[in-house]
Write a structure and sequence with these properties.
Layout (H helix, E strand, L loop, with lengths): L2 E5 L15 H11 L2 H12 L5 E5 L4 E3 L2 E10 L2 E8 L6 E4 L1
Parallel strand pairs: 1-2
Antiparallel strand pairs: 2-4, 3-4, 4-5, 5-6
Amino acid sequence: VAIIGCLVAAPALACDYPDLGNLPLRRAVTRIEMLPEVSAWARGRIEKGAKPQYAVRLDQPVREAGKCYWPVEVRAEGKLWRRYLVTPDGKDVRFRE
């Protein structure tokens, strides 16, 4: 149960978006959903009747160590739980406080 949202950034600020349709967005959310702590948190929210939400923030790219990352916000009931950073290729995921 996931609601995927994304906000688009100005081209000069954005990470390069792979020419793969919506696959990069789905891949980013799936990488986050599959993290053990996120999976456990999401199950707990679902058991309580809340729907976990995942928002890929294309409008707020982050550059670290020469890589470009998309922030992915993990929320339920309108409250931010955690924020992660994911490279557009999905190969690198980082927790972001």
